[in-house]
Amino acid sequence: MDFMAFLQGSAYLALLLVVVSYLSYMIGLIRVLRRIDRLTWKAFVPILNYYASVRAVNAPRRWFFYALIPYVGAIYAGSVAVRLGAIFGKGITFSLFWLTFGSPVGMHIIARTPEEINKALLEKRLGILDIRRLRRELLRRRMQQRAKSET
Q1: What's the pLDDT tens digit per position in 85-133?
Q2: Closest-CA residue to 81 (of 67, 64, 98)
Q3: What is the spatial distance between Cα 74 and Cα 10, in angstroms, rounded to a whole number?
């Protein structure tokens, strides 16, 4: 009898954790979408919020549907996360972890970054696995910031 009560309490605790995580992700996504001047109401709808992040990084609409396919979807979701992180000046490792698995926390982190948003990268069309190009863009941007700070 005590074991069943324990299982029931654990299920309630897990449900509470899922709800709190989702609310945190939703609020973080709202803050991110505001910073890049996109519609924020889409963050409230469960499936539409991922579609909003796909469209926010200027990826094709079909990528949302590709992201729903098992195994293949991880590549597209990773590309969207890397691009979103690059727009806010974050690296690839940060983006792949904090904007996929740790997104309830990662969205708040990128929403609070003091750096300017890379508007040129935000306007460009996203290509699949453009990680090398993003890395070069980030390195060039960091070199420009260092040059500005030294002068």
Answers
A1: 989 988 889 999 999 999 999 999 999 988 888 887 777 776 665 666 7
A2: 98
A3: 30
Residue type, 109: I
- pTM exceeds 0.85: no
- Residue 123: domain span: 2-150
Residue 113 structure tokens: 């970054």
CA angle, 102 then 107 then 111, to 5°: 150
- Residue-wise DSSP of 74-131: HHHHHHHHHHHHHHTT--HHHHHIIIIITHHHHHHHHHT--SPP-HHHHHSPP-TT-H
Question: What is the residue type of 29?
Answer: L
Number of domains, the chain:
1
Report the phi/psi class of residue 113: left, alpha or beta, with left for phi > 0 and alpha for psi in -120 to 50.
Answer: beta
